[in-house]
Amino acid sequence: MTDEFERQHGFPPGTNEIRPANHDDQAAARTLAQVSLVPADLVTFYDSIGDVTWADVGNGYFVDPVRDVLLRLKGYSAVDVGAGQKTSGLVIGSNGGGLSYIAGPGGVVYRTRTASLDEPELDQVADDLRHFLELLERSLTRFVANGEPGYV
After folding, report:
1. Model pTM greater than 0.90?
2. What is residue 83's DSSP assignment?
3. Cα–Cα distance between 95 and 55 in angstroms, integer?
4. How far apart are CA 32 and CA 42, in angstroms?
5. How far apart are alpha carbons 59 and 56 in whole angstroms?
6. Measured between alpha carbons, how far is 13 from 34 in angstroms, rounded to an integer?
């Protein structure tokens, strides 16, 4: 299977995994719960899942470890989302092509249109985290079936 992947794509397969949360991830999830703009389902997610890395599905799909989310929040603040940019969200991952996924305080997940987070233009991709994860799963299923990852 590895040789077939490399022959088809021109490079060896990368890491593709959903890593369960360890003790450090769970402690960081509790810290994340203290941030007022964090949807409860994101904290629940990080209490169980350490990160998602699907490096070989299209350009890749990544849900960052909670430690990275917290470091980004501390170093760069939250990202303005919503009408009039009066609401802030957290960058929780990327598509491997330079676009970021941002979870808003109401649970809505957005994708940036460009790689910049300075004044991001956003598209809503999911109504909540569960919907976002379902879309990622559909992309994985499509990629396994026919090599096309879709566009989340």
Report:
1. no
2. G
3. 9
4. 9
5. 7
6. 38
Residue pair 102/129 in contact by the 8 Å Cβ criterion: no
Give the tens place of pLDDT for each residue, 116-148. 888 889 999 999 999 999 999 999 999 888 888
Report the Cα–Cα distance between both ends of the chain, in Å, rounded.
26
Task: Give the three-state DSSP class for 90.
Answer: strand
Residue type, 52: V
Reduced to 3 states (helix: H, G, I; strand: E, B; else coil), residue 112 is strand
CB atoms near residue 97 (< 10 Å):
11
Q: Which amino acid is residue 9, in one-letter code?
A: H
Beta bridge partners of 122: 112
Please enumerate in sequence order all residues whose Cβ is within 8 A of that of 34, keeping only pairs 6 or more positions apart, or say none.
none
Q: Is the pLDDT of residue 13 over 80?
A: no
Tokens of 144: 């396994």
Contact 37, 90 (CB under 8 A): yes
Q: Residues 60, 54: contact at Cβ < 8 Å?
A: yes
